[in-house]
Amino acid sequence: RLKTKLQLYMSNEKQCWFASSRFVEPMPLKLSPVALGSSFLPNSSLQFGAGARKLHAEGNGPKSSPAAAPDRLPFSRVTQEDLAFFKKILPGRTITDPDLLESSNVDWLKSVKGSSEVMLRPQTTEDVSQILSYCNSRNLAVNPQGGNTGLTGGSVPVYDEIILSTALMNKILAFDSISGILTCQAGCVLENLSLYLEKRDHIMPLDLGAKGSCQIGGNVATNAGGLRLLRYGSLHGTVLGLEVVLADGRVLDCLTTLRKDNTGYDLKQLFIGSEGTLGVITAVSILCPRRPTSVNVVFLGCETFEQLLKTFQLCRGMLGEILSAFEFLDSECMRLLNTHLRLPNPISDCPFYVVIETSGSDPSHDGEKLHNFLEEAMACSLVNDGTVATEETKIKALWSMRERVTEALTHDGFTYKYDISLPVERIYQLVTDMRERLGDRAKSVVGYGHIGDGNLHLNITSPAKDPALLAAIEPFVYEWTASCQGSISAEHGLGLKKRNYIYYSKNPQTVALMGNIKAMLDPKGILNPYKTLPDNLK
Amino acid sequence: RLKTKLQLYMSNEKQCWFASSRFVEPMPLKLSPVALGSSFLPNSSLQFGAGARKLHAEGNGPKSSPAAAPDRLPFSRVTQEDLAFFKKILPGRTITDPDLLESSNVDWLKSVKGSSEVMLRPQTTEDVSQILSYCNSRNLAVNPQGGNTGLTGGSVPVYDEIILSTALMNKILAFDSISGILTCQAGCVLENLSLYLEKRDHIMPLDLGAKGSCQIGGNVATNAGGLRLLRYGSLHGTVLGLEVVLADGRVLDCLTTLRKDNTGYDLKQLFIGSEGTLGVITAVSILCPRRPTSVNVVFLGCETFEQLLKTFQLCRGMLGEILSAFEFLDSECMRLLNTHLRLPNPISDCPFYVVIETSGSDPSHDGEKLHNFLEEAMACSLVNDGTVATEETKIKALWSMRERVTEALTHDGFTYKYDISLPVERIYQLVTDMRERLGDRAKSVVGYGHIGDGNLHLNITSPAKDPALLAAIEPFVYEWTASCQGSISAEHGLGLKKRNYIYYSKNPQTVALMGNIKAMLDPKGILNPYKTLPDNLK
């Protein structure tokens, strides 16, 4: 029975795509804390700031876990004189209203909560330069913040750091349709850039679930990976230029719009993935691919992970240059999508699901390649069931099965999130091993992610925060990853929560050199303190 | 008449490619100085070392030009004790024979000549570590050398720097055919890696004319661009890991083989394009694309540069994901190929020639896309003539029209070479302006390069070195480039010859930060001195 749908699809005319109509309308995924309601899991977050200081004093605060913040560093505290200065240079854009500050003090997962009392909203690079110059001279710590969609606590203050929001730096500066190079301010929301480019026959080289909230500056600062990396590569390759304000207010202008420039060291690379700890990115130029004229999405079910891997190999060979994504989720993810978001399974139940996307310039060629691939996948019994979409609404609906897993998890309970790079053939073993290890202690143990990039998202939930469960997960998960020479943070970064685990993926020599670079660029350490680098450094 | 060939091709069956048979067999391009004979243009090279010191003393030496080397820095000179140490750790691999050293003391263009008296040939990372640790403690300068195919004098000693050759570090360490990730020592020759991968159904993500001699370590150290950048992106995206020995002998192990790893700063990026001035790259891991099953090359002629640009735009739209190169040469390049290398023009004479390559996974789809594109290009009168190749020998022959321009130039006289990035629509204006400006003073003024990357190779020849001609070219060419926010070195790097022109493409703030990084990683400045960074820095 299971093969019927695919066979039905394949017996149709090449152009007449079979697409399931069983989907609910895709909901826009808004990743701001406000959208999820502030009552979500308030008791399970790491508490710092005023409350945390009390905990510290009692000796049982965040220090007990390597993920927790160290004591507040001896930065100055914001005075009335400081506020007067900020209000003078940023009239109407110096926010001190606690209600307005609340959503910027807590991350999207509600797992980290700071106690900042001031948020600055610069509009220009000059504004940012003035702010940092002042803060550096006054020894005031600064938390640069984009869309605040990060998952490792890197985007919110830990104590009373001044929040420097790039939200008002949202101007598109230039787009060259011949070269496909876009230049814009750091605060542009990814989805807005995508919409702007679509009208101009191009697309952004990156796409991620948080696109409706995340900002390009934050994407670059965290070296966001996402759904198109398989095809268009990492931001280290697609970002052509950056403008960065250094800790002391100096503006580092590397905002070139050239595909090639070998005049000295490529300094902008340092800031890609540095999570705002080395400088504040104020503008970005990025190489954008042509908009594909033909996009297809296939949702397939596999019986085993081995079959899924074989499907991937077949796919790489037969879809070749039109393959733009190869994502997976397991049956546990499907259960959460069904239960918490009422998203029905578009195909029959299988242990593993695959989302394959093709993007190309010729619908009939792409259709033929896809047809041949599916025929071969069925002939080899690699897939059990599947459905194909070529129309935009259906494509979005199929994609939401993959993109909304993160959201479904937030409804399942307190979530322990791991974002792991592994050799692709080892990816699912970690989920299986973890499931076996935790048994009934965990509510759900789910695996999904980017097969094409060797990137697993392992998520474990429990009804509430559970130190015993955490102790069963960590450091096991990191040791397991290190034993395969994997990365303990493939694309989420280290932020606050993972910073002390860096040694599982980087040797001390390398981490020490990172410390030297931090000391060189931000000698007072005012930029996003307590993030990225481990506490025991120097 | 001119359209006949294309029409003939297009009237054939889709699979039955028309391909000209007018080519001579392609000659392997060997880029070692020895291969070209050491008598080539000996009088026109910059002379340093013993001879140069004499010139310095007379006050009219290399210091007169910003391209020339500054005085020798106060490094130690190699003693008998030093040689004894090297011979002990590198028995049989410590070269002091002047005949053997000669070809490593001079660059391929014969434009820079050092006077090193010792070349070390390590086989392992540990060898390199011991060498640098020793040299750093003894204050001995070191010139890391790969295939010595660089064009800006970065790959040879300027005075008596010890040559550290990576030629014997030529082991392939691992290849994972599932992920396409290759790990190898730095001294592997690019062409050997390509051959190795071809047998395993993959290709290197970069290709360049010097492939028969250049080494992957040198490619990475100079951030080589080449012929596939349009499709597969820069080395900043495709290099996944590096092992680097720092100036003091410490081994920095960033040799991961993961597509994604966001655990701290991406330090390896610093060394990509740093021309051996920050560390010696000893091993590389790199992401390799699948070998395309269908490759076609088209050689077209255009009447104007505007038509050439329109052809490029049409090509991007209609060939889409299978476009893998869009290169150009002008009629002056063709004249040099005819005259000096006896390569006949495969089509009728035109002012501009284009080499378009497609790489895909389905010969019939690719053929159809190409067919449609050529039909449209003819219908719009964008091209005057053309020929198509799908068979390997013919493909190589067509490619050699583009790849061997550099070689043809060396036979035309003393060559002034410029490697410029510009907005694509401005690219040829610089050639036209230069031709007009120089008039009869230049023997040839030719333009060729990578249209798809906005990268022009502007070359000017004269019968012999001509200071008056040089004064007419520079700084005009740099000022012209800077006025368009271009790069004065798109892919060749700065090396010795362009280091002092860095400010035309980078602001002082940025260059100063480069200096800080150099000082941090190589405080004694022993690594490839006189290269990349300008003389007036600190």
From TrEMBL, chains A, B:
The keyword Transit peptide applies. Its EC number is 1.1.99.39. It holds the Pfam family FAD_binding_4. One of its GO terms (biological process) is malate metabolic process. Its main location: mitochondrion. It is an enzyme of class 1 (oxidoreductase). GO terms for molecular function: (R)-2-hydroxyglutarate dehydrogenase activity; FAD binding; metal ion binding. One of its GO terms (cellular component) is mitochondrion. Catalyzes the oxidation of D-2-hydroxyglutarate (D-2-HG) to alpha-ketoglutarate. Also catalyzes the oxidation of other D-2-hydroxyacids, such as D-malate (D-MAL) and D-lactate (D-LAC). Exhibits high activities towards D-2-HG and D-MAL but a very weak activity towards D-LAC. This is D-2-hydroxyglutarate dehydrogenase, mitochondrial. It comes from Mastacembelus armatus.
